[in-house]
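Thread title: Can someone regenerate the structure for this chain?

I was given the following input by a collaborator and told the matching structure tokens would be attached. They weren't. Posting the sequence so someone can regenerate them.
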Amino acid sequence: MFWFKKKEIVVDCFTVNPTIYTCNPIAPANNFFPAEWKSHPKFIRTKYHSDNTSNLEVDLPTIKKCIGFINLYNVGFMIPSWCDFGIEIREDGSYTYHNAGDLRIDQHPRFQVWDTLYKDYGHAKIGSPWLLKEKTGVQFSWHQCDWHKTDVIDKFKIVSGVVDFKYQHQTNVNMFIKKGSSVNFNAGEPLAHLIPISDSNVKIKNHLIDGIEMSKIDFRPTQYSNQYRKMKNVIENKSKCPFGFGK
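Best answer:
Regenerated them for you:
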């Protein structure tokens, strides 16, 4: 019998902020199991019989033993909030926010999406201080961390998508917040869960770099549309250089 070691996907994560690099790094998802889950008992002893007069009891497993939950936190990685911040969406869809660190928020105009998309919500695009690179082009499925902040989960939605970090490197978080509501995040709370569309293992490497190196990684075409396609063409053409430049 032959055993083959799984291939490894290396995701390099870059930031210029030493506090974020030290205190709230990007990390494998299993670093972010909810505290409530950790403290929950594995079994609950309870009566389990249709006859209410029976005293028979059984130890029933709880979510602590749920294989679907455990597997979810054993794949991919999470981007945590890098500072304390709060966002309020007013009734007219405009926003205001506070933060205790490196945070910027933008808002896409409503005409860019269809009218019924989260029509009772306002958009907020959270500018991430992280740029990611991964050389093979594997795609990652991007998800909200549904098992966190469950007390306010009805007030906001971090939208899903599929991305790669070979042809683009940004990790901005797109969020919809219910109008007339506000949401607060603490530093270290997970914002997004990225799961590779691959059976390879993921290795995270965080890097603290200077602004010049960061700007080189964040190279983007200066045009409104087709930025991804343009960037892909640039990278592919560089990789075809006979002298090996751009590899």
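Residues 33-72 form one domain.
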